[in-house]
Amino acid sequence: MPALPNTEFRTRLLYVDIHSLIRPEILELSPYRVQEQKGYVKLDAMECPYPWPESLKTDWLDRLAKIEINRYPDAELTTLKSAVKEFFEAPESAELLFGNGSDELIQMLLMAVAGQGRGILSVEPTFTMYRIIARTLGLDYHAVDLREDFSLDADAMLEAVQRHQPAIVFLAYPNNPTGNNFEASAIETIIQQAPGLVVVDEAYYAFSPVTLLDQVGRFDNLLVMRTLSKIGMAGLRFGMLFGPGPIMQQLGKIRLPYNINALTQASIRFVMEHFAPFEKQVEQICQQRQWLTKQLQQAAKVETVYPSMANFLTFRSRAGEAGAIFEGLKAQKILIKILHGSSPRLTDCLRVTVGTEQENQAFMEALNAIAVQ
Q: Which residues contact 110 (CB under 8 A, 6 or more apart)?
């Protein structure tokens, strides 16, 4: 087929009005930005800082080499579902849905309930993808402010549930970007009173002593979401949703065919069979979290360090100094996340991922160097 002459193509472009074509709620959004990373100490994205052991990597690559990459992957994921369910000791009645990271699962959930006049509810501040995906699908997004100490205002939350009648309530547990767990009893009350689904996002479950996974099946509207991204598998993009059968069967209708590729499927099986090194890395991160908390509490430019049950720490700088701290660290090739400006509750706040011992020391040395300038 011959190509169109360049003159015709250019003429056609003149008549495409993007702003009238794209929905207003999409035009209003800002794209999700990732900072330039090359050459920096990365303490901004809540990744595991430790690489896989070389011996483990060799065995993993041997496993991947046996995959028939010319064939589509297992579409139903039955074997992987059974293995994941057993590995995480999920309730017998729980069913599973997998996603290309938790983001795809959030998208599937919101696609399932999207409709005119419908909305979802969460807290502020929390994981931004709940809001971003909801708005791309035309859903109303409602948020209840956390208290000054980032604890859950249960009364305000229940009042919002009654007022907005949300199709889904999202609760990150521990919460991102604050790092704390909300009271389990308050969450249970929300589950009991919510007219729709309650999704408890346990992305940071590995670093927290509490979970609601064992409650799946006890409530017919409770779903628990997890990911392996925080414990060494961020590059695999694998999310898990546990929930009651009737709900999961409906959500499964939205899942795109073959959404978990063959390499990821094999890798997850491999990781579960060789989990000891990853478990040790989690222990090291928790130990470093404790050390880093103490160091930040003594730092001259830090006013408050908030308790964390995740693999990061959120801290509040002296008034008006968050931007200078962020830029000062960046100038020394250390990346953290500036939260100031993203929410009124996060004024003067920054978030640092817990890294290796060497990375954490480098971060503290750089932060203290800013303090004496």
A: 120, 133, 134, 137, 139, 168
Question: Which domains does the chain show, CATH number per domain?
Answer: 26-51+276-371 (3.90.1150.10), 71-273 (3.40.640.10)
Omega within 30 of 0 (cis) for the link into 174: yes
**Lowest mean per-residue pLDDT among 20-29, 181-190, 291-300:** 20-29
CA-to-CA distance for 63 and 139, rounded, in angstroms?
A: 43
pLDDT digits (tens, 9 = 90+) for 96-147: 999 999 999 999 999 999 999 999 999 999 999 999 999 999 999 999 999 9
Question: In angstroms, rounded to a whole number, what is the distance separating the alpha carbons of residues 204 and 281?
Answer: 14
Among residues 155, 132, 129, 146, which one has the least CA distance to residue 344?
146
pLDDT digits (tens, 9 = 90+) for 280-322: 999 999 999 999 999 999 999 999 999 999 999 999 999 999 9
Sign of the CA dihedral 206, 367, 45, 170? positive
Round to whole Å and give the CA distance between 226 and 201.
Answer: 6
Amino acid at 109: L
Q: Which amino acid is at 138?
A: G
Lowest mean pLDDT among 10-19, 176-185, 258-267: 10-19
13 pLDDT above the threshold of 90: no
Q: Is the pLDDT of residue 150 over 80?
A: yes
Of 105, 107, 65, 98, residue with least CA distance to 265? 98
Contacts by residues 242-247 (CB-CB < 8 Å, ≥ 24 positions apart): 242/88, 242/90, 242/94, 242/95, 242/96, 242/213, 242/216, 243/94, 243/95, 243/97, 243/216, 244/93, 244/94, 244/95, 244/216, 244/217, 244/220, 245/93, 245/95, 246/220, 247/197, 247/220, 247/221, 247/223
